């Protein structure tokens, strides 16, 4: 599988002149809508299961519904909320940063264009634009590899997607009481393919070729060739779809959508060695058991062969323990009357042990890792151990970059909540430290 990111500096230096930048509005128009019995339609294309995609049939259906496509001025923003538009975004971007062909609603277009800072230029990768390469990954196809050592938190790439389409499409053709769910599904797949044809058709020839060469594992389920590639390579991020690098349950990188630059940021979640393969996770929860992870990955058409999945017994047990790390942490209040200071025994050593477990499982990307790094930073600060404090401050800041470095609405809200909670915790900690130092313990 070739990597999905193609809209980078290397591929967009020559922007074809004929690229459309006008918006296209899809309007149902006036006139009667014919109700079509899809049972007959489905028989013609070979039954209900795995029916081949009959795009001609959809053309006919769409014509009967009088779907009109018209070109609009791309600067218009007053489209109705639920009107679907094909638009190139950002319309006025630096050509080096590239543009995305988007199929979005009027509401979504306003949300994109009105986002504070949009369209900002893309940030440059920490280790330069040539810090990674695409190369054969044994047993998997093409993968992304590091060209140099990278540090936790480094920006590996920031790229605009080639295409942005909605996760779900509503069927445009009215269903009759005889319509089966499978027919409905086939119809939506036809619509998706039609939309993809329009979007891909607006890309430069170079990008079109690159898109068509991407791997497609949806060849047997009624997906058309273009939508099949999309289903194979795209992942959902907040309101958008975006392409990705390989999945692992021990990812060394994480992706976040950044609305002001309309791009996807990929950052290192731990230090990466030169020539190491760069991976992210396709899963929303890495702490679920191996069998469950494999089940969730089945739609991508592959079995994960990472170190964790290869040793399910030990890995599942470790991840079960790590699940508990997400639970609220209460600063140890028990202060022994005598003996060694409690900070090492009650805070630092258990946290170091837990952080080692997360590192062994390759889980530096999870939220608990950042929380624990911050806890160590605070603990060592109290002990006056400057070297260790600095080390964990760096890890904590790098983790924050990965988690909150990108700026989309959902992340901003979460960051606010996180900040409030952190302030509360810090206040509580300070009070505890004060109490402890009054009692002569450090
Ligand atoms: Zn795995």
UniProtKB/TrEMBL annotation:
| PROSITE patterns xref list | SET
List the Pfam families.
SET
Query: Per its UniProt record, what SUPFAM superfamilies does this chain match?
Result: SET domain
Annotated ranges, domain SET: 130-283
Q: Which domain of life is it from?
A: Eukaryota
Q: Which InterPro entries match?
A: SET_dom, SET_dom_sf, SET_domain_protein, TPR-like_helical_dom_sf
What is the name listed in the Swiss-Prot or TrEMBL entry for this protein? SET domain-containing protein
Q: Which species is this UniProt entry from?
A: Tetrapyrgos nigripes
């Amino acid at each position: 599988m070739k990597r999905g990111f193609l809209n980078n500096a290397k591929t967009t230096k020559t922007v074809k002149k004929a690229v459309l930048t006008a918006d296209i509005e899809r309007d149902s128009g006036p006139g009667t809508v014919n109700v079509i019995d899809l049972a007959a339609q489905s028989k013609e294309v070979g039954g209900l299961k795995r029916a081949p995609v009959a795009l001609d049939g959809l053309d006919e259906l769409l014509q009967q519904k009088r779907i009109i496509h018209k070109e609009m001025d791309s600067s218009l923003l007053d489209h109705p909320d639920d009107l679907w538009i094909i638009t190139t975004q950002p319309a006025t971007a630096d050509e080096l940063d590239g543009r995305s062909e988007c199929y979005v609603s009027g509401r979504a277009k306003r949300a994109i264009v009105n986002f504070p800072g949009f369209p900002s230029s893309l940030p440059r990768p920490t280790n330069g634009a040539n810090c990674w390469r695409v190369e054969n990954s044994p047993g998997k196809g093409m993968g992304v590899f590091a060209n140099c050592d990278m540090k936790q938190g480094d920006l590996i790439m920031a790229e605009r997607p080639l295409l942005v389409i909605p996760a779900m499409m509503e069927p445009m053709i009215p269903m009759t009481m005889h319509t089966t769910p499978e027919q409905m599904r086939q119809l939506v797949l036809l619509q998706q393919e039609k939309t993809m044809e329009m979007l891909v058709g607006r890309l430069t020839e170079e990008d079109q070729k690159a898109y068509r060469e991407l791997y497609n594992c949806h060849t047997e389920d009624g997906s058309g060739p273009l939508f099949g590639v999309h289903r194979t390579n795209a992942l959902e991020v907040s309101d958008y779809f975006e392409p990705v690098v390989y999945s692992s349950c021990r990812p060394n990188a994480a992706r976040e959508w950044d609305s002001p630059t309309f791009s996807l940021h990929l950052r290192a979640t731990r230090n990466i060695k030169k020539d190491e393969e760069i991976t992210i996770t396709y899963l929303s929860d890495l702490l679920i058991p191996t069998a469950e992870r494999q089940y969730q990955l089945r739609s991508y058409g592959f079995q994960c062969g990472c170190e964790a999945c290869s040793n399910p017994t030990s890995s599942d047990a470790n991840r079960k323990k790590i699940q508990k790390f997400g639970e609220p942490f209460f600063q140890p209040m028990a202060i022994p009357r005598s003996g060694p200071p409690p900070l090492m025994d009650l805070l630092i050593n258990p946290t170091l042990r837990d952080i080692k477990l997360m590192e062994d499982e390759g889980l530096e990307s999870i939220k608990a890792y950042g929380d624990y790094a911050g806890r160590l930073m605070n603990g060592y600060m109290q002990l006056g151990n400057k070297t260790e404090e600095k080390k964990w401050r760096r890890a904590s800041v790098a983790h924050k970059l990965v988690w909150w470095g990108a700026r989309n609405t959902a992340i901003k809200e979460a960051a606010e909540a996180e900040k409030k909670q952190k302030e509360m915790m810090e206040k509580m900690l300070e009070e505890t430290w004060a109490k402890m130092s009054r009692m002569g313990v450090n």
